[in-house]
């Protein structure tokens, strides 16, 4: 019933036909009434559409909710000071999946993976892990970008990481800072960072295009979008990983005063 | 819920106003005609209603409900035009699974007549959009993307004209600058044309050459920006003439009132936008005098 509509009328304007004795105005529109209708449960569903949507919905839900992997414990991005269980998992899988792709294409291996704390949009709850989990972690369509970076740019990256007060997800790089956040050591793949070497780093296109102020990414020698969505990398990793074994480790630690 | 009480209370006011409108207009006689414009924007693949536990839009939205609402409005007034201002794609797994097919098919079933392109409608690239176009029975209108060097060449008209009860309504579309917003790989050789120039040309053509009494711009430029020089619906309204109504999108603006802005000729333009995700439907009822009127070169809406 229309009288019952959740309508708010908020504009009504009428040419003043009383003044001109109902004669034609310049305009041919004599009134416009604007309303907006909140679509809520007072409107019955159109059965034909509900029926039409149902098989699509079932397929989507079935696919999204079927278990791909298993988390023995709840993983979050805030359970460590300088690195976290979920941040480590995300960076590790980004490195692993990009590296597999590169090897498949006959290209050199990937050394480092970098994400941002804010880009991880959810936790992983203990229990079965599905594609829906991947959508929750990564609702955006961000893709993986491969950057070739020299030692100087990576030194800048280490400085950025040490200055961040929230743990930034990294893999392939390990970092030790002192109690004043001064860098004590930077290692790539277990070897000290070599200023003369070029390293291959993967990250999100969001960060390469300026997200989170990671200016050092702009100093890359080359930048290649792999066209591989981060969410798809997560799903692919879940598919090949029976149990998500991860935790806070020593890839980035801060030495305390003796 | 706050929202609910607010809306219910204002419903009473609405009824009063519309009765008042009828009474005031009754002097224009029995020949007057009514055209209803219904609109959505930034639905972003939202097909199912939000769950009752949702933080922002509890229990709102849903295509099957929108369909029955639209049907009831059409029964009330068959001279209804149903439009969308872009960003149909992207936002739920339905899009990731089916690439927009379901969104288009449901829009067909609801009887959408025209839509314009939003930036997210390029999320699967030009090829991804091209692949879905056969699923849309409605028209896409865009006047400021030049697709001539792309696979979409020749597939979109700048405008469409709908004749209802003898009244011609022109609907044209404007898109946002894609550079800096969409990965260049996705929009390829698409060229961006100045929306103000295009709007002026098209509005004049629709009004003077095609005899449209109502000119509607479906815009995905965004309502307005702090950076004054960024093109927006508000700026477009002020810098052009010949447009009666701008139906906006992109900025997900839940307007509590439509704007009524002076255009460059001193006539007034309505600007409206209904947020996002299909949680609201916009409705504008235009009443036309029984005489033809001289619509040439003037905005039909309001010359007070």
Automatic annotation (TrEMBL), chain A:
GO terms for molecular function: hydrolase activity. This is 5'-nucleotidase, C-terminal domain. Residues 78-216 form the 5'-Nucleotidase C-terminal domain. InterPro entries: 5'-Nucleotdase_C, 5'-Nucleotdase_C_sf, 5_nucleotidase/apyrase. It comes from Robiginitalea myxolifaciens. GO terms for biological process: nucleotide catabolic process.
From TrEMBL, chain B:
Residues 36-253 form the Calcineurin-like phosphoesterase domain. Coiled coil: none annotated. GO terms for cellular component: outer membrane-bounded periplasmic space. One of its GO terms (biological process) is nucleotide catabolic process. It comes from the Bacteria. InterPro entries: 5'-Nucleotdase_CS (IPR006146), 5_nucleotidase/apyrase (IPR006179), Calcineurin-like_PHP (IPR004843), Metallo-depent_PP-like (IPR029052). GO terms for molecular function: hydrolase activity, acting on ester bonds; metal ion binding; nucleotide binding. It holds the Pfam family Metallophos. SUPFAM superfamilies: Metallo-dependent phosphatases (SSF56300). Keywords: Hydrolase, Nucleotide-binding. Belongs to the 5'-nucleotidase family. PANTHER family: 5'-NUCLEOTIDASE (PTHR11575:SF24), 5'-NUCLEOTIDASE-RELATED (PTHR11575). This is 5'-nucleotidase.
